[in-house]
Amino acid sequence: xxxxxxxxxxxxxxxxxxxxxxxxxxxxxxxxxxxxxxxxxxxxxxxxxxxxxxxxxxxxxxxxxxxxxxxxxxxxxxxxxxxxxxxxxxxxxxxxxxxxxxxxxxxxxxxxxxxxxxxxxxxxxxxxxxxxxxxxxxxxxxxxxxxxxxxxxxxxxxxxxxxxxxxxxxxxxxxxxxxxxxxxxxxxxxxxxxxxxxxxxxxxxxxxxxxxxxxxxxxxxxxxxxxxxxxx
Length: 232
Hints:
Elements: E1 84-85, E2 91-92, E3 101-103, E4 107-108, E5 112-115, E6 121-125, E7 131-137, E8 142-148, E9 156-161, E10 167-171, E11 178-179, E12 199-202, E13 208-212, E14 215-218
Antiparallel strand pairs: 1-2, 3-12, 4-9, 5-6, 6-7, 7-8, 9-10, 10-11, 12-13, 13-14
């Protein structure tokens, strides 16, 4: 039995920081704009809940159910995602945000990936250090590379979306052979000065987009890109 049963509760803009809601039933609850900083939501049922613009910084969502929930604009920095059921019903256990999304403070490690919600595209940090966007043809059971950072044999061991909005590939020694150059001071980013929260999203249209609070900060523009051969 859940510890707390609050289906349909209206908690918009409520301050629930540091609250223990382990196993709580928050089915279809209205939590838009709520402060859930450091809240323990382990095993909580959030099916159909409205978490738009909620602050979930450092929230524990281990084994939480987010099926059909919405969290557009939510602050997801340092959220604990472990065996969490995502909005689309998929389950994750590798520490990466819900399907197709990397949130600030998270990273890809070798041989881990983001998968688009439609399962047609993957963004993979390969064991050779190259970050590659693949397209998959299920009818022909084949895949091809659309884009890459061209960092093979570079010693890259992680791809991190930092709290400053910069998406950076790092080696074990701390050097950076590639970055999106989207920190607030960079003049290479779209909409310089845009603040967080930041998310890197692999979309169903094949585009990889890094979003800030007010819009797009970076993209390799793979939406209309034709099939290309990339050295892997």
